């Protein structure tokens, strides 16, 4: 089984690393980081580079594709190289997945038409013009399409998908290995839970862009 | 304020990326990934490279140092270049932090003697010979030393430290930005919560090594 993690300029690191940390532990899986051009790809704030070992045209039949998000999804949503690759590999994937605004890339490639999906809470509405039905859920399974909400949600998506692929017991072992027993010091991780004033301020001046 | 994230061969990606994703958002912070030699550093399973932009001797006075763990801490625990650097930068840090077995590197550098600390649950006992007092807590603050438990705990540590540095409201904004509202599909993230048989099996054959 091959797992391809797409990288592109200004992606958000945790979007990619969360699912990688769980799914790369599928027995006998080969995980490969892929980008339009091989080499280091810098994250949203520019301070970190992750290495894409393969170019898009070197990875043609992954079983799982993982598309991270970033604060400027508009750029890749207009990049034919990325959209063509997503359409091409999706034809044979077992699972096509995204985290955060990565779902907007899937949507722009025409892959979420008529499907329930999610995205970063600030970007949910942007799924609508592509025929997707946005939900407020943290992880959405619709057929082979799995979309997760903002940034950190890829951890939950990865574990959930791992359970479907390798079984509940195996997924629990990976959860224990990663000691994923979250204890955030605040309870402000969703627009429903965060202070209303903070949510309003973020909506008014999207800090991601 | 400068934040230095240490990389070394076979580190665990999420250990480094979790705290990076929150702490790099400290206003006016400069985050730098540092290793014995600059360039790509491969993760524990070898499938991902993160780029260290600076060599150890180029980063001499970081305000915060973050030490990730990995499945073979013994290697760096005997690496004088890393231990000397940790001791040298610790002399002037405001916060010296670790995730997972990264605490064993701090301990081996002599920095946790007499301090309460944590580590990956499979490695807690190894803190004792270095004079540290292991705890089962997920994030431990003892003076300027902050240690976190296994892999994913760096997210909680990062948010907690962010709150102390930039204030609760700012930390909540970053939590909301990262949509950190964890909903793991299983409740097996700690040895107290996971099935006893699974915990026993992992203790018998440490899957990290």
Would you mind describing this structure in some detail?
The structure is a homodimer. Chain A is of the alpha/beta class and about 210 residues long. Chain A has a single domain, classed as Rossmann fold (3-Layer(aba) Sandwich). In chain A, about 30% of the residues lie in helices and about 20% in strands. Chain A is built from seven helices and eleven strands. Chain A has a seven-stranded mixed β-sheet, sandwiched between helices. In chain A, helix 5 runs antiparallel to helix 6. The longest helix of chain A has 14 residues, at about 155-165. The model of chain A has no long low-confidence stretch (mean pLDDT about 95). Chains A and B meet through helix 1, strand 2, strand 4, helix 5 and helix 6 of A and helix 1, strand 2, strand 4, helix 5 and helix 6 of B.
Helix-strand layout with pairing:
The structure is a homodimer of 209-residue chains.
Chain A: E1 2-6, H1 13-23, E2 30-35, E3 39-42, E4 49-52, E5 54-55, E6 64-67, H2 73-77, H3 80-90, E7 95-99, H4 102-108, E8 116-117, E9 133-134, E10 139-142, E11 145-148, H5 153-166, H6 168-177, H7 196-204
Parallel strand pairs in A: 1-2, 1-6, 2-5, 6-7, 7-11, 8-9
Antiparallel strand pairs in A: 3-4, 10-11
Helix pairs in contact in A: 1-5, 5-6
Quick gist of this model?
In chain A, helix 5 packs antiparallel against helix 6 (168-177). The first copy, chain A, has 209 residues and is an alpha/beta fold.
Overview features:
homodimer, 20% strand, globular, 32% helix, alpha/beta, Rossmann fold, 209 residues
């Amino acid at each position: 089984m091959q797992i391809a993690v797409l990288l592109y300029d200004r992606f958000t690191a945790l979007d990619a690393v969360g699912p990688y940390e769980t799914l790369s532990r599928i027995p006998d899986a080969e995980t490969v980081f892929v980008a339009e051009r091989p080499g280091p790809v810098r994250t949203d704030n520019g301070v970190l580079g992750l290495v894409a070992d393969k170019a898009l045209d070197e990875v043609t039949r992954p079983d799982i594709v993982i598309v991270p998000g970033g604060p400027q999804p508009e750029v890749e949503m207009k990049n034919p190289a990325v959209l063509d690759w997503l359409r091409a590999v999706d034809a044979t994937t077992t699972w096509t997945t995204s985290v955060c605004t990565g779902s907007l890339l899937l949507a722009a490639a025409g892959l979420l038409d008529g499907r329930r999906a999610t995205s970063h809470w600030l970007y949910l509405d942007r799924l609508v013009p592509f025929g997707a039905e946005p939900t407020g859920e943290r992880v959405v399974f619709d057929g082979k399409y799995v979309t997760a909400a903002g940034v950190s949600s890829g951890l939950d998506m990865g574990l959930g998908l791992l359970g479907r692929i390798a079984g509940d017991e195996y997924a629990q072992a990976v959860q224990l290995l990663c000691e994923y027993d979250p204890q955030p010091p605040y309870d402000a991780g969703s627009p429903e839970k965060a202070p209303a004033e903070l949510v309003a301020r973020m909506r008014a001046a999207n800090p991601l862009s």
